[in-house]
Amino acid sequence: MQKSNWGALLSAAFLMAISAIGPGFLTQTALFTSQLGASFGFIILASIIVDIVAQLNIWRIVAVSGIPAQDIANKVIPGLGYALAIMVAFGGMAFNIGNLAGAGLGLQVLFDLDVSYGAALSALIAIGIFLYKEASKAMDFFVKILGVIMIFLMLYIAVQSNPPLVEAAQRTFMPEQFSFTALVTIIGGTVGGYITFAGAHRLLDRGIKGAENIPTIDRGAISAIGIASLMRILLFVAALGVVSAGFAIDPNNPPASVFQWAGGTIGYKIFGLVMWAAAITSVIGSAYTSITFIKSFHARFNQHASLLTVGFILLSCLLYAAIGNPVQTLVIAGALNGFILPIALCMMLIAAHKSEVVGAYRQPYWLTASGTLIALVMAYMAMQTILELAQKLPE
């Protein structure tokens, strides 16, 4: 592989992975480990398989076609691309509110800074990256560095917690407990909403497209899932070590209690750094990907993509300040994001067999079949989530 392609591949893989590793990712992993114990390893393994199939389908079709997902959607069903762009942008905006809250919390732990001030400062750092004249290179460098730092810090906490690795490995293949809700939540947290398109659209921006680049595209998709999964596995074994030692994980802040029990005061400070890094990189990934869904709709949007991205982050920050507690917004956005993966997968599976989209390329049968199954299951679960939300709404 050429050096330029390798750099572009790593950029796309890290952007997708780091977009997935946000405050919700940390919280869900710690919480489900406390509930399912070592059996959560099976959930992680199953989610990795599903995530790889989803990513291979989406990355291949986007890169082979050479056009972003919303333009593909418009070729499949006129107008669908606009609907998809609105869903992705709304979901990205809503989750950015939570990401900024997580960034503020991280700086509070590190420097005893007020959460609101920490969120505003984090937003300014993200905005500064996109205002920099070499914004593309700055973004790639920033997410790679923070991604590597997070992995090494999580490795330290995982070792400190002294987890029962033999039991974890055994229950990964022979679980004692299973939770379908946990599986769907973990899948949605890794490839749901805007996240599934982050790396694919980054490949387009870096010029990697066409059927001749399929080996590179596949490596990028698998690498992205691998990076995100490595972080989840490390947090899983760290939390498992804490639970196995008899310590209780605080349901109000599961990841913080894992870090604190495993590493004491130093562990708590490491939690602050990991939370901030996870949150701010998710802010960047969400803003970048959301704008890639909008900029192709008008030439002026494409010309001023960096300013649109800055505006997206600024609006997220203002909404965070206005809303304060973003729980209801996140719940609605979560339900909406549940539909994005099955819609996107169905759209890609149809597009894979349209010559005006992919030319002479033919999607492998196993990818089409497995992708169809995943889309149907995720659509069912998204509908169940909507029905549950409707029952909880006041009459």
From TrEMBL:
Membrane topology of the entry: Multi-pass membrane protein
Superkingdom of origin organism: Bacteria
Keyword Transmembrane helix: yes
Localization per record: Membrane
UniProt keyword annotations, A-Z: Membrane, Transmembrane, Transmembrane helix
InterPro entries named in the record: NRAMP_fam
Segments passing through the bilayer: 36-59, 80-103, 115-132, 141-159, 179-200, 221-249, 269-293, 305-323, 329-352, 364-383
Record Pfam families: Nramp
The protein, known as: NRAMP family divalent metal transporter
Native source organism of the sequence: Sphingobacterium corticis
